[in-house]
Amino acid sequence: MARKRGAARDHGAVRLPAPEEAARALALLDRARAPLFREMRQLAERQGRRPAEPEHYCCTRAQNRMRISTLEALAIVQALHRVPELRARLAEVRARVQSERALIRDSERLQNYECPLLAGTRCLVHRTAKPIACLAWNPGVEISETGWQALAERDRLNDKTIGKGWELKAIPLLLAKYLDGAGGAAGAPPVGGGRRMRRQRRERSERPERRI
Ligand code: SF4
Fold first, then answer.
1. Which residue range is the domain that position 45 belongs to?
2. 3 in a structural domain
3. 123 within some domain
4. Which of 23, 70, 99, 159 has the most crowded CB, counting CB atoms within 10 A?
5. 147-181 pLDDT tens trace
6. Predicted local distance difference test score (pLDDT) of residue 140
7. CA-nearest residue, atom 5 of ligand 1
């Protein structure tokens, strides 16, 4: 049967939203980021010009185990296609996504990898589509309640827009899946929103020195 124009699409294990629904959810996700940018500025003022470690060292393979949600992956894909400066670097990012994807398992587990969005000491999507957990995590500082609230909002938006089957996964896994509109392996069984948050807090308390 022909799909209704603008209807949601099944995409592997998750249901991708229709364009208008996705645009609404991505705007709300953007709003959830705002307090974290404020928090980051305040922290930088307190730390002066001496951050705890070199800029974006936490995004390198030695430290980085960042996982993102489906909506955040869609926000990154959208930015990579729509922002001219990022579109010009799409081939370079795609190559890094593929090489990092080949080194990790298709799993929700925490895995170390070099972020394909890292360009030298710079995050390519800092202003446009930075994942909430990247904003909430700061070297040498516990995640604040503002950070946990933004993570909870991220989960709520994904539950509402994508359905409960979405998964937190490493950036190369989700970008490999969505960057070119291709489907991927179904991956691990769905984890519910509250259970997901409890798991993140537990993982964080078990290894506070490592990036989530
Ligand atoms: S998205 Fe940006 S901040 Fe997050 S891990 Fe990648 S380079 Fe680092």
1. 13-206
2. no
3. yes
4. 70
5. 999 999 999 999 999 998 899 999 999 999 999 86
6. 79
7. 59
Does the predicted TM-score (pTM) go above 0.90? no
The total domain count for the chain is 1
5 alpha carbon – ligand 1 mean position (Å): 34
| Nearest CA, atom 3, ligand 1 | 134
> 136-141 long-range contacts, Cβ below 8 Å, gap at least 24?
136/36, 137/58, 137/66, 137/211, 137/212, 138/40, 138/43, 139/51, 139/52, 139/53, 139/57, 139/58, 140/52, 140/53, 141/43, 141/52
For 32-90, the pLDDT digits (tens) are 999 999 999 888 888 765 555 667 888 999 999 999 999 999 999 999 999 999 999 99
Residue 149 domain-assigned (yes or no): yes
Q: Is 25 in the pocket of ligand 1 (CB under 6 A)?
A: no
CB 93 within 8 A of CB 124: yes
